[in-house]
Structure formats: structure tokens, C-alpha cells
Automatic annotation (TrEMBL):
Every ELP1 first N-terminal beta-propeller domain range: 1-351
Described purpose of this protein according to its UniProt entry: Component of the elongator complex which is required for multiple tRNA modifications, including mcm5U (5-methoxycarbonylmethyl uridine), mcm5s2U (5-methoxycarbonylmethyl-2-thiouridine), and ncm5U (5-carbamoylmethyl uridine). The elongator complex catalyzes formation of carboxymethyluridine in the wobble base at position 34 in tRNAs.
Native species: Cyclopterus lumpus
Stretches with biased composition (Low complexity): 1097-1106, 1131-1144
Gene Ontology BP terms: tRNA wobble base 5-methoxycarbonylmethyl-2-thiouridinylation
Region entry Disordered, spans: 1097-1159
Name of the protein this chain belongs to: Elongator complex protein 1
Gene behind the chain: elp1
Length: 1266
């Protein structure tokens, strides 16, 4: 639905020469024009009006001086830096651009009728006066010469395989009569046909076609040849085929013209010579002749060069465009009847597809540059119809996209004019954006206003604009009801003139130029900003000017307040506001999108601005929608550069090649056109969400709900957008929705997910809203409770089904409550008109919930009427449920409920009801408790002084024993009066104090008590609880010697001495105590030295950063440490990494110690070593020193005490390195750290941040006697 819009026209009258121009060619590298006339060849620069080079054809004898010669071909050869021309006399001449010399490279005695070079400039085809074709290379070496008229069809001749006769074959829509149809006689070519052959090449240079008049019939026939000069196909006999011939560069079709008895058509042929489509020219068959057909370089526009047969010199050039299998006449250039203005040469530019060059008989050259543009109404409010106007000859096809989407070439309505339309513009005033004006080829402006009725107000006015060439007025803008602004060319050609067109004071229908504004530069686009009223002009070099269109009008050479000059010219522009600042957006023909001088993206195929949004389509087949009010230019760059996330609302995938046609203002619809021409309407997610947020902010819940339901937006957004406002306006929400089904749909879609952070995330600039108005409650429960409360207060009978839905949808479905309400409705049916019956309510409830689940929940209400009501609506066989229900009815109430609850696997409730059933059912209760592990609940249901409680306690104790919780089992048994069982439990758990108490409570005989004490002591020794084991052996087993040996084994020296002297066993001192001291001192020294050395080596050789150490055993490098490292055998410092609760500071420290391991290479090895040293120094060394002094081990004590003091000093000195001051540091460690930092030596990096756990002034001051 795009039109061709004239960007600029360059008119030059500087070129002069004898005779008239005959041939025209364009130099691809310089853009200059090559014009061959009856006398000379001239290279001319149309931008400067200067002749670059020139050579006389008559002086060299290539053309006669009387002007009777003719040039039949002219071609620029970029590789040879020359131009090749051929004359009717038979000469082929090269014109060198550098030397301006002519060179004849060949001559044909019979003369030449045409010359055509292949697109790759490797081959040239010449047709001679003897009706032959000569093919040569670019160096003019002959390849072949064949006759034009061949009797054979060619290599592509159709083959008949003999499958049936012609009479029995299928003939399509023509029916069986096609078999009997006789071949019509072909009439000769028209009288005005010049009988000269026409040659045209396919775009890839592999085939060329020749149209020539057949010698037998006198009619034209088209033959297709390949690159080697071999005939491929001959066209079928076509009655009325004319001279024009042009092969579409894309290679699909060959265009020509055909005169029918009742119409004049442009026809298309395939390479096999068969016709394939046509379109009719908009005039009668004898009105005009087609001088030539010209495809542009990208095959999008077909130029038809016409000459009026009646008027003689009246010539036109029409530009046709195809879309959706329809041909549109987009531009009509009427050159009038002045013979001096009639075009004699027309050609497309080889580099710019939409640039057309025309040279008139009066030596005037005009260059037209067009661009593609979609003419859409500029309205931004809801009253705008989103009209799009498509030019189609003398008709304007207008489509109202707010009301309907009509695929072209159909439309909402057609506007019929008297002449072909060249420009369409809409009124820029906000109140009249649905009005449009059309400028026709004869200079008339027609204004159309759409009214409420089918009739449309039409006003016509002629435009008086100075200018000799067609399309003298371009870039037409309708700023006010009686003010038009247009651009016209001026002299010099590097400037433009802005024309302010107004109607005169009198009533004649002519728009006159009320004022003119000169612009230093060629204006290629003029665009109006709907929000600010600014008119921005773009010059051909990318500069931007601002038009002040007041009285008097003025062009401001300064920009729009920021540097917005485009680096390169743009073919499509639009004004918009980005973060409150006005910018001009521009799209180049190379798909680059600019905001001023900033490139936003480089893969844009189309864009549009609507309200506060920028919509673009890309060559990666996406449609992006970005909100301009929340993004800066840098933000736009970043957004367009990103690929978008999964929930990126700004991105949408579209079909390959889609382009934006229009965006319906204040709506969510975006209309896209596919490459083949059909339309597609999409609701872009960004536009939808923006519109929904506006509606929700204004409490328009009904419009929001309908839009979300239609476009499949999650209904949770109604609440998630602003929960507090939604809950406060619950009644308004219910009233606006009105429909019960709509409310139910909303409730059933509720879920805990916050859609504003997952599916539809808000932008970073959006203001935060309260997402959870009620703390501690779930979203679904909050909304259901609020909805139910509001509906019950408004009309409980009307919204009864919705109330049931709120019960069912809760996080824990309240099915029993819903069933009870249905039952109440059945017992007390409402009398209000339109109220829901119990049958309908139950049927709806069965729709929401599985019938089996509902049946089970109805059983849980213990209401058999309700159960029967549900069962009757289910698919259950009465033979299945009636016996079960009858059995239940026959039971005692509590036992009945127990049976129901057990059936429903509600065991806690079942136990509660069974506890009320009496003595005879206790065994059943005990079995239920054991099976379902309900011991705690059972103990709460029975009195503590009863036999049932004791039996339950014993059962609970058995369960605890199975769970390895023997101490708790013992307490429970002791509590309920089972000391024997409690004794066994305490003994197995090493709870020796409780075991002794229960043993004395039984009471046990002395010998058995002693035996018990020995067994407990053995277990305590295994657990390294030597002091407790010694107490048992001494006091209860009455074995002082074993008690003393246990203390010596555990290095409890002072307590061992106490028992030795208490029981007068000094002999043990010499036999056991002193030898144990000697062995222990040796083990202690080596142990401390080994741990201390490992710690130093670990700090020196393996420094690790605190960040990695903070990761603990789960750090990435933990797996690199050796799993086979040696572990200190028997070390009680190796701990597991079990999870420990950290409810207090003591527990936290304990949990930290549990993470430590003395395994070499472990991530926490250094910390484990520090803790091990601390425990040894604080618990073992002090008592050892005192024992050594007491028993005169002075030498050993002298060695141990300095080592102990040295270790303390070394550890205090290492405080700043090992334990950086932190939240867990002690006062001593912090002071030591500060004192250490004042020393010159800097701490080594990578030390651990630990608290000082054991460095205190605890040195042992012991007097050593020599």
C-alpha cells in the first residue's frame, strides 16, 4: 500500500546542440548523462550544468552533416571507460572519455537497426538491415551471425508424448469448445510501427529476446535466444502485438504491449513465448501508442512511454507498480503538447532504482528521484480513522483501518478524479485528520471530507505554480484548512522554493502562491509533527531545516534544538518526541535508521510513530515496539541492538518481508503488509499492555477484561497491576464485568505468580506498586476472599456460582464449605427471580471439581443427604455406594465418623473420633496409632493416669527405640511407671545418671548395680568420657583401681591423684601414673610441633583469598584437593560437615567447628589446625605442666613451658595475619592487631578473617625447683 513520492527533480537547460537528442545513456560511475544527437555525442553533468566531454559525429564521417543520420544504440562501458554507439549507416563507434576521441571498431554494409549490450557488458547484439543478428564480445570479436526470422521454434519446443487426442484433453475454463477453436488470422502491425527490431536482455545476461516484424504475416513475433546465439523459443501468434519490448531484470517475464479490439494492454510473456498475464492501459485502443516500456533496475516499477495519437506531440510517461496481482498507476508525467517539451529519450538510472532521466526535444534534461511512502492519516486520538490512501491512476483507494481491514486492491471506498493522481496528503490539524487532498497531473487539487453520511464533501481548485516540467510541485503538505505548503525547484538547481498556497480573497477556484521562501539546498522531504506542529525539511545532503509557517513564513537554518542532521539522506522521515525532546527520525534506502546524527539500527525495513510509540520492522523478521517517553536515544540504540528476552514485550516475530502500513491510534492494532501484497493485523504486546495499564489506572475494568480475554493476556494482570487499588474497587470490578461467567473465568485463572515480574515485566522507569497488600496471606486466597465478601454483600443469590468458585479456587480448596452451601440452597431454595437452583449449583460444582473428589469431600461432612445428592449426579453405580452408606448409617456416631475419616485417610480426625468410642475399641485405636505414627496425638487424647495412656506410652517408647532415640524412650517409660524398660533405654543411650536413678528405684541388688556401673563405664570410656567412667567405677562398682586407671588413660592427672590418696593406693603412682606422664609428654611435644608446622606451612605456601575461603567446602576448588591425604589417626578434632542449627551464638560457633577437618588439603584445613592448637594449649598443657612439676619431671617441664610460651607469643604476633578484625573479634585480638599493624612488617595477603577463640593470657606460672 505504498505510493511513489517524488523526493526531488533536477532540471537543467544548459545543454545545447544542433539537431535533437536521439539516444541517452547514464554513466554508472559518475552519474553524468551521455546524449547522442544527429551531430555529436556529449557527456553532460546535470548537477553542474557543464559539458564534461564532447565529440562530433559528423566531423568523423559517422553521420551525415545534413542531419539525416540516426544513432540506433548508445551504451556506457564502465570497464573500457568508453561509450559505444551504433549508427543506422552501420558504424560501431567507441567514444573514449579520457581522450574525447572517436574510434570506429566495425562497420556493417547493410546498416544497423539496433544495438543492445548484455547486463554484464561482455556481449553485444547487433541487428542489421538484412534482418540478421550479429553477436560479438566486448572486444568486438564475432561470435555468430544468424537470421532473425527462423522457421524452427527453437530448442525449447514443446514435446507431445501422444497421451490422447486433443479433443479428449482438459482445456480448463474454456471448455471443450477450445478443441474445435480455429486459429485466428494475425493482423499486420500498426501503421505507426517503425518496423525496427527490438532487443532486450534478461537480468543475468543468459538470454535475450528479439521482437521483429514477421516477413510472412507482417505482425510482430518475439524470439528468445541464449548467450551462444542459439534460438530457444518463439512466441505464439499474438494479434496486435506492438513494438515495445523489455525483459524484467529479475528474469521472470518479458513485457510488451498488445492492441485488442476493445482495449490496449501491457502483456507479459514467459521465456518460452507463452503469454502470462496483462493489465489494461487506462485509455481506448486508438488513443495513444506505446513508444517504449522500461523496467527499473530492481524490477519494481514499469515505465510506459506514451504518445497521444490524436494530439500528435502530447506525450506521457506513466509509472506502474504491481501489488497483490494488481497493477497500480502511481505517477503520470504529462509533458503537454509543446514539441520542445516532448521527451525524446527516457531511461532509468542503473544504480538508483527509482531515478528516472528524461531528455526533451528542446535539450532540457530532467532527473526525477522517487521514494516509497505510505500515505496515512496523522491523527492520534480515538476519533482518527487510521485512513491509508493508495494512488491508482485517477482513483484514490482509501481504507479505514479502524473499522475494517480490506486487502488491496480492495478498499473501504474509492475517490474518482478526472485526471491521474500524483500526490495525496491528509490535513495536519488534529480535528480534521480524516480529510485528504489530492494533486493530479493536470495541476488540480481536490479536497475530500468524510461526513457521517455516505456522501463526501468535494472541493476542487487549480494550482498556479511556475514550472515547465511535469511534477513541478512536490512534497505537498496540508497544514490548515486553507493553507498548503509545497516545494518546487528553482534556479540555481542546488536550491528549492517553498510555496505557501492559499485561496484568493475572491471566490474563484484557484490556489495561488501567497508567499515564497527560498531554501539554500534541495528539499527532499517535508514532514509535520502532530504533537508540536513543527514542520521539518530535509535537504539532499541530510541537513535539517525548521519551517516557521506563520506570517511571514521563515526557514530557520538552525536545527530543532539538537544536532539532528542526518549523515546521509533519508527516504522516510517522521518527527517524534524522545524523552521530552523533539527528534527527526529518518530511514535510508540502505535500511539504516537515524535519530538525528545518531544511528539507531542498521536492519530496519520500515517504521512508524504512533502516540508515544516507535514501531519498526527489521530484516530479521521481527516487529519492535518501543515507548519513546521512557527511553533516551542511547536507550533506543541499546534496545534495538539487543535480541530481546523471552518475555520481552517489545519484540514480536512477523512474516519475512513484512512492512508497517499503519497503527490505529489509541488502539492495539498494527497493520502489516506482506511482500505479496496481502495484509495482516497484529496486536503488538507492547501496545496491548500499555493500553491495558491506562485502562486499569482509570478503573475501566470491563474494557480491560474484554481486551485481555480476546488477546489471551493473562487475567492475573487485573490484580497484579495494582493490588491495592484492585481490592479497594472490588465492587466496581464486579459491577463492570456484570457477567457471572466472566467473574468465574477471572477466578479460575488466578495463580500465585506475579505476572508483572514474570510474563509482563514493567519497565525500569515504571513506578513501583504495592504487590502484596496483605502480609502473610497468599494472593489467590486474598482475591477469593475479597471477591466473595463483595459478592455476598451485593447479591448472594445472583453471584452464587461465583461464590462457589472462590471457595474451590483457594489454595486449600474449601470443598466442604461449598458443598454445605449447596445443601443449604437445596433445603431453603431462594424465591428471587433468576436465582440459581441447588441442582444447577451442584452441576456447576461438578464441572469445577472431579466427581470422585467431590464425593469424598461430601463424605467428610458426615451429611448423608449431601452425599446422596452428589452421588446421584455422578457416574457411580448405586450398587457400589448405597451398601457402603447404609453400613455407615448403622454405626454409632463416633465410630461412624471414625470409619469415614479412615476411609478418607484423615487419620488424625479418625483417631479423635475413635478415642470417644469406649473401651472396646481401644485396641483398634492402638493399632491405628502404631500404623500411622500418631503417638503424640494419641497421648493428648487420653488421661495421663489411665491404663490407655500407659499402653500408648509403651508403644511410643518402642517407636522411639526403633528411631535410635533411646534416652527419650527411657524418659517416657520412666514417666509412665515402667522403670525396668526405662533402665534398658537409659543404659543403651549411655545416660548413666538416669540409669542409676531407675536402678535404685527398682531397686537392683548391689551386685547387679555394680555390674550395671561397669557396663556403663565401658561405654563412657569408649566415648572418651573418662572422668564420668571413673566416678561410676569408684562409687557404684567399688573398684578404685579401675577408676584410677581410667583417669590416667584420659590424662585427668589431678583427679587421679585425688583417688590415689583417698584410697591410699600410692603404689599406682609409681606403676602407672609416672610412666603414663613420660609417654604423654613425648606424644604431646611431637603432636604440637606437627600441628604448628602444618599451620605455618599452610599459611606460607598456600595463601588463598578470603573470598574463596568464604565459600567453604563448596568452593569450586574443593574437588582439586587430594581425597587420599593422610589423616591424624585417633584425632578427636576431625569432624563431619553435618548441618547444624544456628539458633544462638554458641550453636553458631559449634556449627563452624563442625565444618573443620584436619585432612590435609581440605578447604578448611588451616582453620582446623588453628582450632586444634587452641584446644591443646588451653585444655591439656596447663594440667600436664602441673603434674610434671609435682612428680619432679623438671627437665621435661623446662622444655615444655618455653615452648608453650613461644607458641602463645607467636600466635599473638600472628593475630593481624590470621584473624583480621571483624564482627566476631575479641577486645584482646583487636588490640593486638592494632599494635601489630604499627610495626614495619606488612601483613601477608590472603589470610583468613577469623575471630580470636583462644588467645588469652593463660600462661602457666609454675615454680620449678632445681
Amino acid at each position: 500500500m505504498r505510493n511513489l513520492k517524488l523526493l526531488k527533480s533536477l532540471r537543467s537547460t544548459e545543454l545545447r546542440g544542433p539537431g535533437s537528442p536521439l539516444r541517452l545513456s547514464v554513466r554508472a560511475d559518475t552519474g553524468s548523462l551521455l546524449v547522442a544527437s544527429h551531430c555529436s555525442i556529449t557527456e553532460y553533468d546535470p548537477r553542474t550544468g557543464q559539458v564534461v566531454s564532447e565529440a562530433s559525429l559528423t566531423a568523423g564521417g559517422f553521420l551525415p552533416e545534413d542531419g539525416g543520420g540516426a544513432v540506433v544504440g548508445l551504451q556506457d562501458l564502465a570497464e573500457l571507460e568508453s561509450a559505444c554507439l551504433s549508427t543506422a549507416g552501420g558504424d560501431v563507434v567507441l567514444f573514449n572519455f579520457n581522450t574525447c576521441q572517436l574510434e570506429c571498431v566495425g562497420s556493417v554494409d547493410s546498416g544497423l537497426t539496433s544495438m543492445s549490450w548484455s547486463p554484464d557488458e561482455e556481449l553485444v547484439v547487433l541487428t542489421t538491415g538484412q534482418e540478421t543478428i550479429i553477436m560479438m564480445t566486448k572486444h568486438f570479436e564475432p561470435i555468430t551471425e544468424v537470421g532473425i526470422h527462423q522457421d524452427d521454434f527453437g530448442e525449447g519446443k514443446f514435446v507431445t508424448v501422444g497421451w490422447g487426442k486433443k479433443e479428449t484433453q482438459f482445456h480448463g475454463s474454456e471448455g471443450k469448445q477450445a478443441a474445435q477453436r480455429t486459429i485466428q488470422e494475425v493482423r499486420p502491425a500498426a501503421a505507426w510501427d517503425d518496423r525496427a527490431p527490438r532487443v532486450t536482455w534478461r537480468g543475468d545476461g543468459q538470454l535475450f529476446a528479439v521482437s521483429a516484424v514477421c516477413l510472412q504475416t507482417g505482425a510482430r513475433k518475439v524470439r528468445v535466444w541464449n548467450r551462444e546465439g542459439v534460438l530457444q523459443a518463439t512466441s505464439e501468434p499474438i494479434n496486435g502485438l506492438e513494438q515495445a519490448l523489455c525483459w524484467k531484470p529479475s528474469g521472470s517475464l518479458i513485457a510488451s504491449t498488445q492492441r485488442h479490439p476493445n482495449k490496449h494492454s501491457v502483456v507479459f510473456m514467459e521465456k518460452n513465448g507463452l503469454l502470462h498475464g496483462d493489465f489494461t492501459l487506462p485509455f481506448s485502443k486508438d488513443h495513444a501508442k506505446v513508444r517504449d516500456l522500461l523496467w527499473n533496475s530492481d524490477s519494481t516499477v514499469l515505465a510506459v512511454w506514451l504518445e497521444d495519437l490524436a494530439a500528435g506531440e502530447d506525450q506521457q510517461v506513466n509509472l506502474w507498480v504491481a501489488g497483490n496481482y494488481h497493477w497500480y498507476l502511481k505517477q503520470s508525467l504529462d509533458f503537454g503538447r509543446d514539441s520542445r517539451k516532448a521527451p525524446v529519450c527516457v531511461c532509468w538510472d542503473p544504480e538508483r532504482p527509482l531515478r528516472l532521466h528524461v531528455v526533451t526535444r528542446g535539450w532540457t534534461s530532467v532527473t526525477y528521484d522517487w521514494g516509497w511512502a505510505t500515505e496515512r492519516s496523522p491523527g492520534t486520538d480515538a476519533a482518527a480513522d487510521a485512513n491509508v490512501a493508495v494512488i491508482d491512476g485517477d482513483k484514490i483507494l482509501v481504507t479505514n483501518f479502524r473499522q475494517c481491514v480490506v486487502p488491496p486492491p480492495m478498499c473501504s471506498f474509492e475517490l474518482q478524479l478526472t485526471s491521474p493522481v500524483n500526490q495525496v496528503t491528509f490535513l495536519c490539524q488534529p480535528q480534521g485528520t480524516n480529510r485528504l487532498a489530492a494533486l493530479t497531473s493536470d495541476g488540480q487539487i481536490s479536497v475530500y471530507a468524510q461526513g457521517e453520511s455516505c456522501d463526501r464533501d468535494v472541493r476542487d481548485a487549480m494550482v498556479s505554480v511556475p514550472g515547465e516540467e511535469p511534477l513541478a510541485l512536490r512534497q505537498l503538505l496540508w497544514l490548515q484548512d486553507e493553507l498548503f505548503v509545497g516545494v518546487s525547484s528553482s534556479l540555481p538547481p542546488t536550491s528549492s522554493t517553498l510555496l505557501m498556497l492559499r485561496p484568493p480573497r475572491d471566490a474563484d477556484a484557484t490556489l495561488t502562491v501567497s508567499s515564497e521562501v527560498e531554501v539554500d539546498g534541495v528539499v527532499v522531504s517535508a514532514v509535520h509533527g502532530s504533537q508540536t506542529g513543527t514542520v521539518a525539511l530535509q535537504l539532499e545532503d541530510g541537513q535539517i531545516r525548521k519551517l516557521r509557517w506563520g506570517e511571514p513564513p521563515l526557514v530557520n537554518n538552525s536545527t530543532l534544538g539538537c544536532s539532528i542532521n542526518f549523515p546521509v539522506p533519508c527516504v522516510q522521515t517522521a518527527l517524534c518526541s524522545i524523552s521530552g525532546e523533539e527528534y527527526l527520525l529518518g530511514l535510508t534506502d540502505r535500511s539504516h535508521l537515524y535519530a538525528g546524527d545518531t544511528e539507531l539500527a542498521s536492519n530496519i525495513s520500515s517504521f512508524g510513530v504512533c502516540n508515544d510509540f516507535l514501531l519498526i520492522t527489521t530484516h530479521s523478521h521481527t516487529c519492535r515496539c518501543l515507548q519513546l517517553t521512557t527511553l533516551s536515544v542511547k536507550g533506543l540504540q541499546a534496545a534495538l541492538a539487543s535480541d530481546g528476552g523471552q518475555n520481552d514485550e517489545s519484540l514480536r516475530r512477523v512474516e519475512r518481508g513484512s512492512r508497517i502500513v499503519t497503527v490505529v491510534p489509541q488502539d492495539t492494532r498494527v497493520v502489516l503488509q506482506m511482500p505479496r501484497g496481502n495484509l495482516e493485523t497484529v496486536h503488538h504486546r507492547a501496545l496491548v499492555l500499555a493500553q491495558l495499564r491506562k485502562w486499569l489506572d482509570s478503573l475501566r475494568f470491563r474494557e480491560s477484561f474484554e481486551c485481555m480475554r480476546k488477546l489471551r493476556i493473562n487475567l492475573n494482570l487485573l490484580y497484579d497491576h495494582n493490588p491495592k487499588v484492585f481490592l479497594e474497587n472490588m465492587e466496581a470490578f464486579i459491577t463492570q464485568l456484570g457477567s457471572i461467567s466472566h467473574i468465574n473465568l477471572f477466578v479460575t485463572e488466578l495463580k500465585e505468580e506475579d505476572t508483572t515480574s514474570t510474563m509482563y515485566p514493567r519497565g525500569p522507569e515504571s513506578s513501583p506498586v504495592q504487590t502484596r497488600p496483605v502480609s502473610g496471606q497468599k494472593k489467590v486466597d486474598v482475591v477469593c476472599d475479597a471477591l466473595r465478601s463483595a459478592m455476598e454483600s451485593m447479591d448472594p443469590n445472583k453471584f452464587f456460582l461465583s461464590v462457589l468458585t472462590t471457595h474451590v479456587k483457594k489454595t486449600v480448596p474449601e470443598l466442604e464449605v461449598a458443598l454445605q452451601k449447596v445443601h443449604e440452597l437445596r433445603v431453603n431454595p431462594p424465591r428471587a427471580a433468576g436465582a440459581v437452583s441447588a441442582e444447577e449449583a451442584l452441576k456447576y460444582l461438578l464441572f469445577l471439581v472431579n466427581v470422585n473428589d467431590l464425593y469424598e469431600h461430601s463424605l467428610g461432612t458426615y451429611d448423608f443427604d449431601l452425599v446422596l445428592m452428589v452421588a446421584e449426579k455422578s457416574q457411580k453405580d448405586p450398587k457400589e455406594y448405597l451398601p457402603f452408606l447404609n453400613m455407615l448409617k448403622s454405626l454409632e456416631t463416633n465410630y461412624q465418623r471414625y470409619t469415614i475419616d479412615k476411609h478418607l485417610k484423615r487419620y488424625s480426625k479418625a483417631l479423635h473420633h475413635l478415642s470417644k468410642c469406649g473401651e472396646e475399641h481401644f485396641h483398634e485405636a492402638l493399632q491405628l496409632v502404631r500404623e500411622q505414627k500418631l503417638h503424640s496425638e494419641a497421648l493428648r487424647l487420653y488421661a495421663a493416669d489411665g491404663a490407655h495412656y500407659k499402653a500408648l506410652s509403651c508403644a511410643y517408647a518402642e517407636h522411639l527405640m526403633e528411631q535410635q532415640q533411646a534416652e527419650q524412650a527411657g524418659l517416657l517409660l520412666w514417666r509412665c511407671g515402667e522403670p525396668v524398660g526405662a533402665l534398658q533405654a537409659f543404659a543403651s543411650s549411655s545416660s548413666w545418671r538416669n540409669a542409676i536413678c531407675t536402678a535404685q528405684q527398682i531397686p537392683l541388688p548391689a551386685d547387679q548395680l555394680a555390674l550395671l556401673a561397669r557396663d556403663l563405664a565401658e561405654k563412657l570410656i569408649e566415648q572418651r568420657r573418662f572422668a564420668e567412667a571413673a566416678l561410676l567405677l569408684d562409687q557404684y562398682a567399688k573398684d578404685c583401681e579401675e577408676a584410677i586407671l581410667a583417669l590416667i588413660t584420659g590424662s585427668v592427672w589431678e583427679e587421679a591423684l585425688r583417688l590415689i590418696y583417698m584410697h591410699d593406693r600410692q603404689d599406682i603412682t609409681e606403676t602407672n601414673l609416672k610412666p603414663a606422664l613420660s609417654i604423654f609428654i613425648l606424644n604431646m611435644s611431637s603432636k604440637v610441633e606437627k600441628i604448628f608446622c602444618r599451620n605455618n606451612n599452610n599459611n606460607d605456601n598456600n595463601p588463598r583469598s578470603s573470598s574463596s575461603d568464604e565459600d567453604g567446602p563448596d568452593c569450586p576448588d574443593a574437588e582439586l584437593y587430594s581425597e587420599a591425604s593422610s589423616v591424624m589417626s585417633g584425632s578427636k578434632y576431625s569432624q563431619s560437615n553435618s548441618r547444624v542449627s544456628s539458633r544462638s551464638s554458641k550453636n553458631r560457633r559449634k556449627a563452624e567447628r563442625k565444618k573443620l577437618s584436619l585432612k590435609e588439603g581440605s578447604p578448611m584445613e588451616d582453620r582446623a589446625l588453628v582450632y586444634a592448637l587452641g584446644e591443646i594449649l588451653t585444655t591439656e598443657v596447663h594440667g600436664l605442666l602441673k603434674a610434671l612439676v609435682l612428680f619432679q619431671f623438671d627437665k621435661q617441664a623446662e622444655k615444655l613451658q618455653p615452648a608453650y610460651e613461644e607458641a602463645l607469643q607467636a600466635m599473638e604476633a600472628a593475630v593481624p595475619e590470621v584473624w583480621l578484625t571483624g564482627p566476631n573479634s575479641t577486645a584482646n585480638s583487636i588490640m593486638a592487631s592494632f599494635q601489630q599493624q604499627q610495626r614495619p612488617a606488612a601483613p601477608q595477603p590472603g589470610r583468613h578473617r577469623l575471630s580470636s577463640l583462644f588467645i588469652h593470657n593463660s600462661s602457666c606460672d609454675v615454680c620449678l625447683c632445681n
